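Extended Data, record Cytochrome P450
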Amino acid sequence: MDILVRANISEDPRNRLSEEELLAEMRTVIAAGHLTTGNSLCFILYELARHPDVQERVHAEVSSMLSAVSARGDAEYTMGDLDGMHYILAVLKEALRLHPVVFGPFLYSTIDDVLPLSKPIRTTDGKLLSELPISAGQNVHISISGITGKNTLGQQLFILIGSRLKDIWGPDAHEFRPTRFLDGSVAVKNNFGVFAGLGNFASGGVSCLGWRFAIIEMQTFLVEIMRQFELSLPPADQPEKGMQLPLMVATLP
């Protein structure tokens, strides 16, 4: 934010942001660039603590990558090294699928339109619909998680994208299984979103501009944490300590 404020102190008024624009950019930096990525990373670490077998495989992949970097004489790993760690990327995708920190965007229709459905639905009066009419002025709520929700034809329209829908992700859609992104057992039947068929970064004209940077951030944090630490859950009889992520952290031998 300091950089943003300093950059706005320009001798040329044409290059300056208005106060309203500056505040809007700050909200974006704070909310979109910090909280969502940080909260997503918390859920990734939580799932690693819950699944020691997954964490062990992540440790092995990080160790292998760092050894390869050292063997070629480099001091730092590159983006190519990060993207080459396919299992960690699958872990990241699976955690985002199960725990979308933004549960769904709210959209506002400016024109009358028709929304085709992936499969027909039956209304309360028994009609079978394969598409939904959307009226100008109607609010549309897109549920990314797809856990609960309903379709209505009133002023509010709820649409399930479904990061937990079994007909998209398989019968174990509610389970944490990163290999679903590696073994081809699930063919994602939707092209929604900009990343892995997920809606975490929205889609189309309202998609997150910084989605790629957010993925790189999480990849890098995971490497730096997993190269040094081992995560586990606290004992079941340990009392909760308020709003804290229940993790125990130990340094690797």
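Summary. The beta strands are 106-108, 113-122, 128-134, 139-143, 156-160, 229-232, 248-251.
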